Amino acid sequence: MITDCHVHIQPLEMLRPQALELLKKNxxxxxxxxxxxxxxxxxxxxxxxxxVDRAVLINYVAPEIMGxxxxxNPFIADYVTADPSRLSHAExxxxxxxxxxxxxxxxxxxxxxx
Length: 114
Known about the structure:
The chain is an alpha/beta fold. It has one domain. Helix content is 54%, strand content 12%. The chain contains five helices and three strands; from the N terminus they run βαααβαβα. Strand 2, helix 4 and strand 3 form a beta-alpha-beta unit. The longest helix is centred in the last third of the chain and has 24 residues, at 90-113. The chain is globular, with a radius of gyration of 18 Å. The N and C termini lie far apart (37 Å).
Protein backbone atom coordinates (compact mmCIF):
# COMPACT_ATOMS: atom_id res chain seq x y z
CA MET A 1 0.00 0.00 0.00
CA ILE A 2 1.38 3.42 -0.98
CA THR A 3 0.45 6.43 1.15
CA ASP A 4 1.46 9.99 0.36
CA CYS A 5 1.74 11.65 3.77
CA HIS A 6 2.25 15.26 2.73
CA VAL A 7 -0.41 16.63 0.40
CA HIS A 8 -1.52 20.26 0.54
CA ILE A 9 -5.18 20.59 -0.35
CA GLN A 10 -6.34 24.09 0.48
CA PRO A 11 -9.36 26.27 -0.20
CA LEU A 12 -7.83 28.43 -2.93
CA GLU A 13 -10.51 31.07 -2.52
CA MET A 14 -8.93 31.90 0.85
CA LEU A 15 -5.53 32.72 -0.67
CA ARG A 16 -4.37 36.30 -0.53
CA PRO A 17 -4.22 37.75 -4.06
CA GLN A 18 -0.40 37.91 -4.05
CA ALA A 19 -0.09 34.27 -2.98
CA LEU A 20 -2.63 33.17 -5.59
CA GLU A 21 -0.74 34.99 -8.34
CA LEU A 22 2.55 33.37 -7.32
CA LEU A 23 0.94 29.96 -7.32
CA LYS A 24 -0.56 30.52 -10.78
CA LYS A 25 2.77 31.80 -12.10
CA ASN A 26 4.98 29.07 -10.61
CA UNK A 27 2.83 25.97 -10.96
CA UNK A 28 2.36 24.70 -14.51
CA UNK A 29 -0.38 22.41 -13.22
CA UNK A 30 -2.36 25.16 -11.48
CA UNK A 31 -5.60 24.15 -13.24
CA UNK A 32 -5.21 20.64 -11.81
CA UNK A 33 -4.51 22.07 -8.35
CA UNK A 34 -7.69 24.14 -8.58
CA UNK A 35 -9.68 21.09 -9.71
CA UNK A 36 -8.31 18.94 -6.87
CA UNK A 37 -9.10 21.67 -4.35
CA UNK A 38 -12.71 21.86 -5.50
CA UNK A 39 -13.42 18.18 -6.20
CA UNK A 40 -12.13 15.37 -3.99
CA UNK A 41 -13.21 12.78 -6.58
CA UNK A 42 -10.88 14.40 -9.14
CA UNK A 43 -8.03 14.19 -6.64
CA UNK A 44 -8.84 10.52 -5.94
CA UNK A 45 -8.77 9.80 -9.68
CA UNK A 46 -5.34 11.47 -9.86
CA UNK A 47 -4.12 9.28 -6.99
CA UNK A 48 -5.31 6.24 -8.93
CA UNK A 49 -3.39 7.39 -12.02
CA UNK A 50 -0.25 7.77 -9.88
CA UNK A 51 -0.66 4.39 -8.16
CA VAL A 52 -1.17 5.98 -4.73
CA ASP A 53 -3.63 4.22 -2.43
CA ARG A 54 -4.06 6.81 0.30
CA ALA A 55 -3.22 10.43 1.07
CA VAL A 56 -2.78 12.36 4.28
CA LEU A 57 -3.81 15.95 3.69
CA ILE A 58 -2.20 18.77 5.57
CA ASN A 59 -3.04 22.41 5.95
CA TYR A 60 -2.01 25.32 8.10
CA VAL A 61 -3.36 28.56 9.42
CA ALA A 62 -1.41 31.54 8.02
CA PRO A 63 -3.75 34.49 7.56
CA GLU A 64 -1.04 37.14 7.28
CA ILE A 65 1.11 35.31 4.72
CA MET A 66 -1.16 33.01 2.72
CA GLY A 67 -4.62 34.08 3.80
CA UNK A 68 -5.63 30.78 5.39
CA UNK A 69 -7.67 31.26 8.54
CA UNK A 70 -8.81 28.57 10.95
CA UNK A 71 -11.54 27.79 8.41
CA UNK A 72 -9.02 25.56 6.60
CA ASN A 73 -9.60 22.97 9.33
CA PRO A 74 -13.33 22.40 8.71
CA PHE A 75 -12.60 22.57 4.97
CA ILE A 76 -10.17 19.66 5.13
CA ALA A 77 -12.31 17.71 7.60
CA ASP A 78 -15.19 17.92 5.12
CA TYR A 79 -12.94 17.17 2.13
CA VAL A 80 -11.77 13.82 3.50
CA THR A 81 -15.37 12.62 3.92
CA ALA A 82 -15.38 12.00 0.15
CA ASP A 83 -13.54 8.72 0.88
CA PRO A 84 -12.34 8.27 4.47
CA SER A 85 -10.74 4.94 3.60
CA ARG A 86 -8.32 6.76 1.28
CA LEU A 87 -8.17 10.32 2.55
CA SER A 88 -7.30 11.53 6.01
CA HIS A 89 -5.90 14.70 7.47
CA ALA A 90 -3.06 15.34 9.86
CA GLU A 91 -5.38 15.64 12.86
CA UNK A 92 -6.73 12.14 12.13
CA UNK A 93 -3.18 10.81 12.04
CA UNK A 94 -2.21 12.55 15.25
CA UNK A 95 -5.24 11.04 16.98
CA UNK A 96 -4.43 7.58 15.59
CA UNK A 97 -0.83 7.81 16.79
CA UNK A 98 -1.98 8.94 20.25
CA UNK A 99 -4.43 6.03 20.45
CA UNK A 100 -1.86 3.50 19.26
CA UNK A 101 0.81 4.68 21.69
CA UNK A 102 -1.72 4.68 24.51
CA UNK A 103 -2.62 1.07 23.69
CA UNK A 104 1.05 0.05 23.50
CA UNK A 105 1.72 1.72 26.86
CA UNK A 106 -1.25 -0.04 28.41
CA UNK A 107 -0.10 -3.44 27.10
CA UNK A 108 3.41 -2.84 28.43
CA UNK A 109 2.10 -1.77 31.84
CA UNK A 110 -0.26 -4.76 32.02
CA UNK A 111 2.51 -7.20 31.04
CA UNK A 112 4.89 -5.87 33.71
CA UNK A 113 2.66 -4.88 36.60
CA UNK A 114 -0.69 -6.60 36.28
